[in-house]
């Protein structure tokens, strides 16, 4: 943790206006550092920092030093807008990596990043609402939409022998996106939702909602929310009340914080879906080896692969553009991420720069897979099924 803190502090200092050197090139990193997913953040900061460090160790960005300038959304829409406005209007970053939560990503994009003409690439925002954003082609993500995850989750639940479940999802872009898609796909495939509830965040008690959800003899409770907020409280209160013993969650609930709060034994029959990386992907091993060599551990944490890839792609886009011209970033991002081109993987910065200087096309294939963007900046991808394993999670299935 000391290494992370030192690097982030140094990056913030270097990126702070007059303190920056003339040959620094900034990249905006927008993260939900505090708020409901704070427990996810330290390894994701390490992932972004590793990408920047590798660039600087291999010659730098545009011939100078790459600097990550962080903005904390605080996990709220207004916090996201404030942080994004600082990045694009004060720090004058040419591209933004982030944010992570769907709600903060959309809020930052609509209120600050798109109006400034800045390209934005999120490693983790999954809301279907992002597909139809009026974004002038500026907003990208490298995880599949919740429309896809909801459908896959429905198949997972039925394949687990669960044909009667109760459902609760948080009333935000993330929860509504997966919750409604899951319900439609599950019922269309023959499953029965015994009760469904759209709940609000930041309540102290969900016991009355849980009492209603427990009626009708559901085999499990599907919870689509964040472990650091309503999701964790709902699972804990359901267990305390003896109302449910089996839970199905999505990536927001696949958080070590949930295990810490309720215990691994209470979750031994539960499972969770989450965007993941392709099986037998050598690029993932390359990243994980480099990550663990630098930080000691943590490469297997949720969304490390996606955060690293999104950061590395943003840096490649700047190098491809040959300048910090904001107007060139969106096309440059497509150019470095998509076929055709010579393959470049995690950590291969010097190779990528050499190819670009020779006028050759490159195609980055990352630890989380390749990023073949469609017209809306969306990608396909992979969804994993995870179970609790000790104090962490183990992947037991991948769906492409």
TrEMBL record:
Residues 26-337 form the Leucine-binding protein domain. The keyword rRNA processing does not apply. Belongs to the leucine-binding protein family. Gene3D superfamilies: 3.40.50.2300. InterPro entries: BCAA_transport, Leu-bd, Leu_Ile_Val-bd, Peripla_BP_I. This is ABC transporter substrate-binding protein. Transmembrane segments: none annotated. Pfam families: Peripla_BP_6. It comes from Roseibium sediminicola. Keywords: Amino-acid transport, Signal, Transport. The keyword Transport applies. It comes from the Bacteria. Residues 1-22 form the signal peptide.
């Amino acid at each position: 943790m000391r290494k992370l803190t030192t690097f982030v502090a140094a990056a913030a200092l270097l990126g702070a206006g007059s303190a920056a050197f003339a040959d620094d090139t900034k990249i905006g990193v927008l993260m939900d550092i505090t708020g409901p997913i704070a427990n996810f953040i330290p390894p994701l900061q390490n992932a972004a920092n590793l990408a920047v460090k590798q660039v600087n160790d291999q010659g730098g960005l545009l011939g100078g030093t790459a600097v990550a300038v962080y903005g904390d959304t605080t996990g709220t829409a207004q916090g996201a807008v404030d942080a994004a406005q600082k990045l694009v209007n004060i720090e004058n970053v040419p591209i933004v990596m982030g944010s992570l939560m769907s709600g903060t990503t959309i809020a930052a994009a609509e209120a600050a990043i798109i109006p400034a003409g800045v390209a934005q690439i999120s490693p983790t925002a999954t809301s279907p609402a992002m597909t139809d954003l009026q974004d002038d082609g500026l907003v990208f993500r490298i995880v599949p939409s919740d429309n896809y995850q909801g459908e896959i989750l429905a198949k997972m639940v039925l394949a687990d022998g669960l044909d009667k479940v109760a459902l609760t999802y948080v009333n935000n872009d993330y929860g509504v996106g997966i919750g409604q898609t899951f319900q439609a796909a599950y019922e269309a495939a023959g499953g029965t939702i015994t009760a469904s509830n759209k709940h609000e965040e930041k309540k102290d008690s969900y016991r009355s909602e849980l009492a209603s959800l427990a009626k009708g003899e559901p085999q499990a409770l599907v919870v689509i929310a964040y472990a650091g907020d309503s999701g964790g409280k709902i699972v804990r209160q359901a267990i305390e009340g003896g109302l449910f013993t089996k839970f199905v969650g999505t990536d927001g609930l696949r958080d070590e914080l949930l295990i810490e709060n309720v215990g691994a034994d209470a979750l031994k029959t539960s499972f969770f879906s989450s965007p993941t990386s392709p099986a037998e992907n050598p690029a993932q091993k390359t990243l994980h080896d480099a990550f663990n060599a630098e930080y000691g551990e943590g490469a297997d944490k949720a969304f490390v692969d996606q955060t690293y890839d999104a950061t590395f792609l943003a840096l490649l886009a700047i190098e491809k553009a040959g300048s910090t011209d904001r107007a060139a970033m969106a096309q440059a991002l497509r150019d470095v991420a998509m076929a055709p081109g010579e393959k470049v993987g995690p950590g291969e910065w010097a190779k990528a720069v050499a190819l670009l200087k020779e006028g050759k096309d490159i195609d980055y294939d990352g630890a989380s897979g390749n990023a073949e963007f469609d017209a809306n900046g969306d990608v396909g991808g992979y969804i994993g099924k995870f179970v609790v394993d000790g104090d962490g999670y183990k992947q037991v299935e991948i769906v492409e």
